[in-house]
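Section 5: illustrative case.
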């Protein structure tokens, strides 16, 4: 217990400083870093939650063996019977795939099911956006499902759907994204190392710009 506590105390300042290279170096010395990062995934309102998600991806890229043994645990957390409600697990799977695709090749088809579940939809949309930013070709069958969530009652889901479609450069979604431009519902999205507050309409505008059809792209 003492060693785990000490390791956690080393991880926290690295996450706060967004020092992912330092985190990877620590994981090279301590095999329990990836497991400790999972402990931050139950508080999606915390910046450390999101930094831990991103850090887990970096550790997967550099030390895949350390993360591989955790994937079954993440999948279990996405089982409603586990009682954990999948906080962060869906997002973590997308982030791992972003950095070390070989660990997730057989699991990516399961992402369809995670999108269909209310409790895992928002984090899965974030994970898909992160994956689509570097491997858009992998999402050609999944992205056509996402525009239907632009009408979701939850503004967080609408905003993350727009964000995901922009990151995945899904051109067919342009018309649906335009319907959200006047949506002033608040949304919070982790991107580029920080939590950003915006409106659904602003996120949709940014997604259209990424598709080359928004005002910001002209």
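Designed sequence:
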């Amino acid at each position: 217990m003492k060693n785990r506590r000490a390791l956690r105390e080393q991880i926290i300042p690295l996450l706060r400083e967004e020092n992912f290279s330092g985190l990877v170096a620590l994981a090279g010395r301590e095999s329990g870093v990836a497991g400790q990062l999972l402990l931050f995934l139950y508080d999606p309102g915390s910046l450390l939650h999101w930094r831990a998600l991103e850090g887990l991806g970096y550790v997967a890229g550099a030390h895949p063996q350390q993360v591989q043994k955790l994937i079954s645990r993440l999948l279990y957390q996405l089982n409603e019977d586990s009682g954990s409600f999948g906080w962060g697990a869906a997002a973590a799977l997308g982030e791992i795939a972003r950095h070390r695709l070989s660990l997730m090749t057989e699991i990516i088809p399961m992402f369809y099911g995670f999108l269909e579940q209310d409790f895992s939809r928002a984090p899965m949309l974030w994970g898909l956006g992160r994956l689509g930013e570097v491997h858009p070709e992998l999402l050609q069958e999944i992205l056509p499902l996402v525009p239907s969530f632009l009408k979701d009652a939850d503004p967080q889901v609408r905003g993350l759907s727009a964000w995901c479609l922009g990151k995945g450069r899904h051109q067919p979604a342009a018309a649906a994204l335009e319907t959200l431009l006047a949506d002033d519902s608040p949304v919070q999205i982790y991107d580029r190392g920080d939590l950003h507050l915006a409106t659904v309409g602003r996120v949709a505008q940014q997604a259209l710009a990424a598709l080359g059809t928004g005002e910001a792209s002209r």
